[in-house]
Recover the amino acids of this structure.
């Protein structure tokens, strides 16, 4: 650990390390995968952490389990959560494991797979509106009535630390393999995962980037403004990246530690989805594929123009300053998709794209 | 190792162990995955060895690499192979790694992904007819003209031993986890993989089963007849399981060691494909999903009626004789699929199937 690290950051990194110790054996240690075609397209060695294979189908299980475990240990009997889906599923499964009652609030247009998974885990599922504000209002009402605390989907220290353990595993595995990360890229919804990644990477020379859909670029606007800025999220296939505003707690970490934020459109996300499916052979939901879409956009541009922070370096340039081949880590955050969307996104592959991929 | 094991079997198991030592670090050690929904449907603990994530997209890389490595060490300058696809891809990649010239012969109706992957690895690709006899005739001609030996897709000791290492890794990982396999199930084309599984399991109380498409049941007919019996393979989405006859070498192993052969139809294979995609989050080609389809058929039947060998026990009964929950291992042998077939198979999911899966 670097002595030049400010004290509060050291403490926060310690939270990720403590979360990793507590979660060891409680969550799946997901594999790190590679595909030659993805390396070629990115112009770098790309290490993909397959959290779509995590219990519950997403890395949200890490933070959800840590938060629920702490509540159970403190004597609570139940928990309330709101999210676009994966945090609700994770909270439902985590509550089931610790014998807590769970109430989860999802949008009325939530992915059916996520609603069904939360119900299957025994949670009471409420559907409310389409915005985070509408869901929060219902969650607060349930919390007031039952006395069960809310575990926020990203504005919660256990969630940030828990999600950060996925990045920590990737960072450590890359080091053990002799190919330490130069860059680490995650999708951004409320910013909990990428904030956890910043903490996990603290003290190491790793640039961390966030990727958000073009029409839901709260993080880029917030970084430019210096404070959280809400947006009216446009429709996107990345249903998990639709929160209207980056969380206060993640933003406090991201504003000083993040190297930049990239934006990708639905076509780029769909192309990354197909690449992960047909080349890496794993099913990653569009939100989870956005990180790779960001890496490929930056590789194509070969510049830092799409990065929100001024002066950010080019993360996908083929070689590091010392001539080593650059290594880029990407967390594939989730894999909960309906059969319909898989059919739609694979049918949309153009023949020339398909051949270009092999 | 059991003393009651006949000597030739001990020797053959030794070949798998030697292959595993040679392949360590040369192939990916693929993860063993699980999904609660699959356990529920199978009525057992199901451990799935994700060889669809193997280099080249299938477990054929193991035997192909071992065979090519031996040829290169013996001073050969090239290699010839014929197959429905994955062995050709594996041989092309293995030849590339050892600096050998490769000529591979595939059927005219081969999966485009497999043709493109073999070409991308620098092999000369020839397309010949639709039957194994037509491909073999061309392969023999090329071998005669070039002097480069043929590595058969299954009738070759290195291929049987190499493919057996996937089963060995699964057997050993299940033991380390404290849940040793009661049953091990693989799809059957020419029988090389399941013969390797029998060798890997030798000396342990593991029942090994093979699964073949209903219209390409050479193994079941061969077991009944006591010698290899060729069939006219009917069309099936499991393009890798279409060889007209089980190989001589695999059959010599299978006739005394296999516990039985199950047959599955295309609908059952498609259902297993969707289950692996949406629940396990991995893309497995139909041929590679046939093993799980066999496990689910046996679980549904709850009897040994579909097994070719008389008196075979029920592999998917929920509990072993001693009351432990039964553990079933399945090797997911490959994942090379076109976008079109993914779209077709996911669009075909009926709503009630989709909900039943969550």
């Amino acid at each position: 650990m670097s002595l030049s690290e400010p004290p509060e950051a050291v403490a926060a990194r310690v939270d990720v390390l403590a979360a990793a110790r507590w979660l060891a054996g409680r969550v799946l240690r997901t594999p790190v995968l590679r595909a030659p075609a993805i390396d070629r397209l990115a112009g770098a060695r790309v290490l993909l952490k397959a959290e779509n294979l995590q219990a519950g189908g997403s890395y949200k299980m890490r933070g959800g389990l840590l938060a629920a475990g702490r509540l159970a240990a403190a004597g609570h009997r139940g928990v309330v959560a709101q999210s676009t889906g994966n945090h609700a599923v994770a909270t439902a499964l985590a509550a089931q494991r610790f014998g807590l009652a769970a109430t989860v609030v999802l949008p009325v247009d939530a992915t059916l797979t996520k609603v069904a998974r939360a119900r299957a885990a025994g949670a009471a599922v409420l559907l409310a509106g389409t915005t985070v504000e509408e869901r929060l209002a219902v969650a607060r009402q349930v919390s007031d009535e039952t006395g069960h605390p809310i575990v926020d989907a990203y504005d919660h220290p256990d969630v940030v630390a828990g999600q950060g353990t996925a990045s920590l595993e990737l960072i450590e595995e890359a080091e053990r393999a002799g190919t330490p990360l130069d860059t680490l890229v995650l999708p951004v919804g409320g910013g909990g995962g990428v904030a956890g990644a910043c903490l996990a990477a603290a003290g190491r020379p790793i640039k961390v980037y966030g990727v958000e859909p073009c029409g839901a670029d709260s993080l880029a606007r917030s970084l430019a403004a210096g404070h959280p800025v809400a947006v009216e999220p446009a429709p996107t296939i990345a249903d998990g990246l639709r929160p209207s505003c980056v969380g206060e707690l993640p933003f406090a970490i991201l504003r000083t530690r993040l190297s930049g934020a990239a934006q990708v459109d639905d076509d780029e996300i769909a192309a990354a989805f197909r690449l992960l499916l047909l080349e890496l052979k794993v099913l990653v939901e569009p939100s989870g594929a956005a990180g790779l879409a960001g890496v490929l956009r930056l590789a194509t541009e070969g510049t830092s123009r799409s990065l929100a922070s001024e002066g950010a370096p080019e993360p996908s340039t083929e070689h590091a300053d010392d001539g080593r081949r650059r290594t880029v880590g990407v967390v594939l955050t989730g894999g909960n998709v309906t059969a319909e969307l898989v059919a739609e996104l694979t049918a949309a592959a153009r023949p020339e794209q398909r051949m270009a991929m092999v």
Summary: The longest strand of chain B covers residues 207-213.
